[in-house]
Amino acid sequence: MPLPTVLCIAFGTGLAAALAARNEIRLSARHPLLTRSYAAYAIFALLVLVPISVYFYIFHGDWFLLYLFDVRDIPSAVALVGFACEVGLGTLGFALGGSLVRSQRDNAVGAFVAIAVIGALVPIAIASDRLAVVGSYAEYHGGFGLTRFGEGAMLQGAALMIVVLVIGVAFLLTRVWMASSRQT
User: What gap in Å lies between CA 83 and CA 50, rounded to an integer?
Assistant: First the structure.
C-alpha cells in the first residue's frame, strides 16, 4: 500500500468507526473523541494501521513513497511525525464522523467513507506503473535492477499486510458496533 492509500484508509476507518459507534455517540454528552469507541479506534490505529505503514516504510520505503523521495534522505524524526499525522488523520475522520452522526447525518458519513475508499484506490490506479516494480529510488530513476511486484517478497508482504488490515478493520467495526448497540 502506497502512502496516499494508507492516508485515505486512516481517514476512512475513522469515519467508519464513528458510524459504527453512532448509538454511543448519540447517547453520550461527551465529545466523540472522549468515548470508548474512539479509544478502540485509537488502539486500532496504533496497533494495526501504523505498524502496517511502518512495515512498508522500512522494507519497501521508496515504493511506499511512489519513488518520489529517497527514503535514505528522510530524517527518522520526520517519518515519526508522519506516522503521528496518520493517527491524527484517522482521529479527524472519527471526529468528523462523530459530529455528523450526532446531527443525524449517517448517510453523509457513509458517503465520506465511500469517497475515502475511492481515494484509497485512485493512487493505485494512477501510479500503477510505479507500483508494478520494486526497487530503490536510484534503481527506479536509473532504470536498472527493478523486479516485478509479483516476483519477490513484496507480494507476500503486501498480501499479509492487507489480510491483517482487513481483519483489523472488521474486528474494530464489529467491536465498536456491538458495544454501541448494547448502550441502547
Answer: 6
Report the distance separating Cα 76 and Cα 61, nearest Å: 12
Tens-digit pLDDT profile for residues 51-90: 999 999 999 999 999 999 999 999 999 999 999 999 999 9
pTM of the entire predicted model: 0.94
- Cα(66)–Cα(135) distance, integer angstroms: 11
